[in-house]
Amino acid sequence: MSKKVLFIGLDGGTFDVLDPFMQSGLMPRLKAFIDEGVRGPLETTIPPITPTAWVSWMTGKNPGKHGVFEFLLRRPGSGSLPDMPVSSNARDGLPFWDVLGQLGKQAIVTNVPCTYPPRIENGVMISDFLTPRGRQDFTHPESLREEIESRFGKYELYITEVYSPGNVDKILDQLFLELEYKTKVNLYLMREYGWDVFATHYWSTDRFQHELWHLIDKTHPFFNQKEYDANRDRIDKYWNTVDSTLGELFDEANDDTTVFIGSDHGFGSITKFLCFNVWLIEEGLLVLKRDAMTRFKRLLFRLGLTPDFAYRSAMKLGLAHLRLSVGVTNRSSLMKLANKLMLSLQDVDWSRTVAFSKGNYGQIFINLRGRETNGIIEPGAEYERVMKEITEKLRALTDPETRKPLIGPVWRREDLYTGPHTEESPDIQFLPDDMTHKPLGTLDLTSNKFITSVYGNSGDHRMHGIFIGRGPHLRRGVRIEGARIIDCAPTILHAFGVEIPSDMDGRVLEEIFTEEYRSQNPVRSYDASGTVEPEKIVTLTEEESDEIRERLRSLGYLG
Fold first, then answer.
1. Average pLDDT for residues 265-283, to the nearest whole number?
2. β-pairing, 272-275 with 451-453?
3. What is the DSSP code string of 104-137?
4. Kind of pairing, strands 123-126 and 139-140?
5. Are 75 and 86 in contact (CB under 8 A)?
6. CA–CA separation, 212 vs 82, rounded Å?
7. Maximum Cα–Cα distance across the chain
8. What is the mean pLDDT of the chain?
9. Which band of pLDDT confidence, cut at 50, 70 and 90, is reported for residue 342?
10. Cβ distance 249 to 8 under 8 Å?
11. What's CA 185's distance to the chain center, in Å?
C-alpha cells in the first residue's frame, strides 16, 4: 500500500490550552490520538510570526534562506515607505509538497499561510487569508474555486470579527463557521481528488486566542467573571468542535495514513505593549525633524494624540469593529491622514538617526550608510560600536514595576540566520524576558509612552507550539523534546522514505519513528543546489497591498 501523510495545522496551538481541555473531557479524539502516538513542544522561528514560521515549516529552511521575516517585507533603503505584504512570490525554497510533486506524488494544500498566489507542482491548492480581497484566483487550478463554491457557497477565506465587550458571540459565530466550512471542503477534496500528501490549516484557533484569551485565563487583567459565565458554554463548545473536526479528518484519512498535527507558535497572555521607537527617541538614537509641522505633531503626540489613544477611544465607544468595515480605500486614506496628524517614521530626521524599529517581538535596524537611503552609520568599526551600545542598553532595561530585566535574549542577525536573505533581516533581534510584554514596531509610534497596558488582543505568541503524530510507522505513547518547526518538512519527507534536499536546515525527527522503520529507511539526502523553482508571475497592486496591510493591522498583527 502506498504511503500517505496528512498534516493538520492548528494555528497558534499550544498544549497550555489543549491539555486542560483534553483532561476535562472536551477533546476526547485528540487525547486518544496523542495516547497512540507522539507529542512534544515545537520550537518556532525568531521572530515567532505566522508567515515566518509557516514558510520555515513548509521549506525546512531558516528565514535567511527563504526570505520571509514578517507579515510585511521591508525593502532595504525604503525609509518610511510602506513595506510590501508577504506572499508566495516573496518565498524562496521549495515546499515539501513540491519536492514530493517532483517525485510524482500528488498533493492537496488548503489555506496554508503564504500560498497566495497559489502554485503547486502536482496537485490542487487553495490559498490563504493573505489573498487580497476581491481576487478570484486563490485556487489552483482556477476552476477549483467555482467547483467548491457551487457546492458549499462563497469560500470563507477571512476572519474579521475582533473583540470588544458584547461582541464575543459574533467572534465565535465566525470561528465556528470557519471550522465547519473548511472541513466540508477538506473532506470533499480528500474524497474527490487523488492525494499522497494533504496539508491543511485552520486559522480560527489563532484568532480565538488573540481575541478571547482573557476568557480562558482568569489571571488576565481583562478577565471578567460575568463575561466568562455568559460565554463559557460556547467556548467549551468551540474547543469540542475543534476536537470533532480533527476526528472527522482522522476518520477520512484511515489508519494507514501517517497524521501529523502542528502549530506555527504557541500562545499566552499579553498585558503590556513596548514601543521601541519611543525608547529609541528617549535614548537619542532616533531623532525627529525640527520643522514646524513635526514640532506641532510632536506636541500633539505628547498630549496623547496617538494610534493607541484612537483605538482605546473607539473601543470605549463600541466602534472598534469599524476598522474592518470602512473599506480599503477609506482605510488607506485614514492611515495617510493619521500619518499627517500623528508622528511616524515620515517625521524622522535620517541625517541624525542611528537606529529605528520595524516589526514585532523586538527588531532594530541600524541606519547604515550604503544600505539605507539616508544612512549615516559607517560599516565596520562605527557599526560595531553602535551595535554594542544598543545591545548593552537593551540588556540594562528593567521593568519599572518589578525591577526585573525587561529583555531576554538579544541576537545579531548572523546569530540566527544563514543564507542569501540574511542581510534583509533586522540588525538586532530580541525577545522580552517576560513574553506577556510584546514589543510593537510596525506601526512606527503606537503610543507616546515606551510601556503601555495592552488593548485589543489579550493573547499573543509564544516560542513553542505543538507537534503531534500518529501512524503505522510512528512510535506509540512517546513524548519528545527538541523538535523545531524547520524539522517538519524533512520529517514529512522521511515518512515517505524519500531523500531529503541538502539545503534544508531542519533534521529528520528520527526518534518518532519505530526502530523497524528506521532500519529499513535510513535518512538519505541529495544535492539540491541545482533546484529550479516555479516562475513567480502574479503581483499585487498598490491598492491590494494597502488592503492587506490595513487588514493585518486591524487584526492586531501589526500593532
1. 96
2. antiparallel
3. T--EEEES-TT-PSP--SSEEEE--TTSPTT---
4. antiparallel
5. no
6. 30
7. 75
8. 90
9. confident
10. yes
11. 23
408: helix, strand or coil: strand
If one counts every other C-beta atom within 10 angstroms of the C-beta of residue 143, the result is 9
Quote the radius of gyration of the chain (alpha carbons, Å).
Answer: 23
What is the pairing mode between strands 459-462 and 428-432?
Answer: unpaired
Distance between CA atoms of residues 274 and 290, nearest Å:
25
Is residue 87 within 8 Å of residue 130, measured between CB atoms? yes
Grid coordinates 477571512 are at which residue?
A: 158
User: Cα 403–409–414 angle (5° rounding)?
Assistant: 150
Cα 530 from chain centroid (whole Å): 30
Strand order of the sheet with strand 437-440? Answer: 437-440, 272-275, 451-453
The Cα–Cα gap between 195 and 383 comes to 52
Q: What cell was used for 240?
A: 469540542
User: Could you tell me which residues come within 8 angstroms of residue 296 by beta carbon, excluding any fewer than 6 positions away?
Assistant: none
Measured between alpha carbons, how far apart are the two ends of the chain, in Å? 50
- The pLDDT assigned to 75 comes to 62
**Number of neighbouring beta carbons within 10 Å of residue 460:** 26
- As a whole number, mean pLDDT of residues 540-551 equals 63
- Could you tell me the pTM of the whole model? 0.92
Judge whether 200 and 260 are in contact, CB under 8 Å: no
Cell of 57: 515549516
Residue 297's pLDDT is: 92
The full set of domains in the chain, from first to last, is 5-265+462-548 (3.40.720.10), 272-306+342-453 (no CATH)
Q: How far is CA 355 from CA 84, 268, 278, 376, in A?
A: 21, 30, 12, 10
Please tell me the distance from the alpha carbon of residue 523 to that of residue 509, in angstroms, as a whole number: 10
CB atoms under 10 Å from CB of 374, counted, come to 14
Cell 496623547 found at: 304
DSSP state of 41: E
Average pLDDT in the 430-440 region? Answer: 94
Cell 541625517 appears where?
Answer: 351
Band of pLDDT at residue 253, cut at 50, 70 and 90:
very high
Phi, psi torsion values for 479, nearest 5 degrees = -105, 135
> Among residues 80, 70, 49, which one has the least CA distance to residue 445?
80
Three-state SS at 547? helix
Query: How many percent of the chain have pLDDT more than 90?
Result: 79
Q: How many CB atoms are closer than 10 A to CB 295?
A: 12
Sort 502 into a burial class: Cβ within 10 Å, 0-12 / 13-18 / 19+: exposed
In 3D, which of 386, 429, 436 has the Cα closest to residue 406?
Answer: 436
Q: Is the pLDDT of residue 328 over 50?
A: no
Report d(CA 467, CA 492) in Å as an integer: 12
Task: Give 11-37 pLDDT, tens digit per residue.
Answer: 999 999 999 999 999 999 999 999 999
- Has residue 291 got a pLDDT over 90? yes
